[in-house]
Design brief:
Elements lengths: L13 H8 L2 H5 L9 H10 L6 H13 L4 H19 L3 H13 L1 H5 L3 H16 L3 H12 L5 H10 L13 H19 L1 H6 L5 H5 L8 H20 L6 H15 L4 H23 L5 H21 L7
Helix pairs in contact: 1-5, 5-8, 6-16, 6-17, 8-9, 8-10, 8-16, 9-10, 10-15, 14-15, 14-17, 15-16, 16-17
Length: 318
């Protein structure tokens, strides 16, 4: 551990972390007229359409029929669940400092809007960093996926990433690394044919709509590529940092890159990485080795965080 950063690796008490993250509720709960998903969630909750995943609908039913919550209280209860997981996931001073601006930047377009996937991402990240037994991780993925089906992919990433051999990510191990590159190109070109494959299924109307088959933006693609390169360099030239967390980061970014022809899918994987990122960076920054690459990774992270501050609009009740 780097002595000068030892203080930042200290774990804060849970209740104190909860108190620190509490003001974020002010950002996440914003007026519904500015919430893009309000028109979908409000009628489903009010009239019990059961249009979404079973666990989400069971939770909705419990809040509506048993607790007699109106929609505002129901929505706020999901924000409370997110708050609980913020405090469970980001434990050290370094992680909290890194997570706060990222959460605020993503508060209204992600945590306050895409609430099902946001909560599932938090659950999967918690499982990845805090649960050691594979069977419990698997069960957590199953439960989370019944709240949003997007949990299947990111849960699978968290389960298999730690089992990937180190040699696949080490630049001077030529054969495994070339195998990884070939797999990347194969997967990328396979996803280029996504339009044709979907046209053969009952979801062929998505092809004409273009809603799910647009490619990831250039800015997002560059962020994924540069982050992946820096993680691979850290992994290659700093043996102290060869651990499960950095593997999860690299595999997540690889999957985001594989699926980049499909913005909706690649974007969801990237959002999971953004939730996981403060944990990964917080771990890397207090570990010796690869300092130049780590500083570059931190600078890239800060650029993303402040980019969100710049481009996003924020709305409040008062």
């Amino acid at each position: 551990m780097i002595k000068s950063l030892r203080f930042f690796s200290l774990e804060l008490p849970y209740l104190f972390r909860l108190f620190i993250f509490m003001p974020i509720l002010y950002f996440i709960n914003f007026p519904f007229e500015y919430n893009a998903d309000y028109g979908n969630y409000f009628p489903d909750y009010t009239y019990g359409y059961f249009a979404y995943e079973p666990l989400y609908e069971w939770y909705s039913y419990f809040c509506r029929e048993i607790l007699d919550f109106d929609f505002f209280l129901f929505w706020f209860s999901i924000s409370i669940l997110e708050l609980i997981f913020f405090a469970l996931i980001y434990k050290t001073i370094m992680q909290v400092v890194l997570a706060l601006p990222s959460i605020i930047g993503m508060s209204q377009f992600f945590y306050g809007t895409q609430v099902r996937y946001a909560l599932v991402s938090l659950v999967i990240v918690y499982s990845a960093v805090s649960i050691s037994k594979p069977i419990l991780k698997f069960l957590t993925t199953v439960v989370a996926s019944s709240f949003h089906y997007g949990g299947v992919l990111i849960g699978f990433i968290s389960l298999i990433a730690g089992k990937v051999a180190d040699s696949f990510f080490v630049l001077n191990r030529l054969r495994p690394f070339l195998t990884l590159i070939l797999l990347l190109f194969f997967a990328y070109f396979a996803f280029q044919q996504f339009d044709y494959l979907v046209s053969l299924t009952r979801f062929n109307y998505y092809v004409d709509s273009g809603e799910y088959v647009e490619r990831i933006s250039l800015v997002s693609l560059l962020y994924v590529i540069f982050s992946l390169i820096l993680l691979i360099l850290i992994f290659t030239y700093s043996k102290e940092n060869r651990n499960r967390l950095i593997k999860i980061g690299m595999v997540t970014l690889l999957v985001s890159l594989f699926t980049s022809p499909i913005a909706a899918l690649s974007g969801r994987v990237s959002l999971f990485y953004f939730v996981f990122e403060p944990v990964l960076l917080g771990s890397l920054m207090v570990t010796a080795g690869g300092r130049v690459f780590k500083v570059a990774l931190l600078m890239l992270y800060l650029v993303r965080v402040f980019f969100y501050f710049y481009v996003n609009s924020y709305y409040f009740y008062w």
